[in-house]
Hints:
By secondary structure, the protein is an alpha+beta fold. The protein has six helices and nine strands, in the order βββββααβαβαββαα.
Amino acid sequence: ELAQLSMPRAQFAVDIQQTPDPQGAWVGGERLAFDAAGIDRVEFLVTANPGEPLRPLARVASGGETSRLMLALKTVLTSADEVPTLIFDEIDAGIGGVVGTLVGRKLRGVAGSHQVLCVTHLPQLAAWGAMQLKVEKDVHDGRTATSVRRLSPDERVHEIALMMGSVSPATLQSAREMLEPAGEG
Length: 185
């Protein structure tokens, strides 16, 4: 999964530790420390570069690497995961166009067995959605109101062009081309 998300040499591991504690919970013939999270201390370890040791994900992964690692993990777990809806809030953090396309394809695959909601500002990723919603804020009578509406196919092309920076004949054509592989162009 990581190779498909432009991390071909990444390694991932899960470190599970338990700590003996004479005052702890009796488990399998010994007493173990515990708290509200249980008896296991779980840490994800990762290395994105060959020759580097596995290190805690929270300390070494960039925002984009973390997003891709979590997506890869969710992809692997989809067959066992009974959660019907997955929400990815700005999974595009720290990634660019090519990787955005890869992440979009992967999310589309996960959407085959789950409802996927994805907040994104990356047009390459947005193009892979089965539908696109636009969130807008307006002020009415001195109060801010938020609305969400589904974009029509033409509005979607316009919005993806706008996500590229401006609406022009060239960006409209690029938006149509981005939507084609996802079956929307």
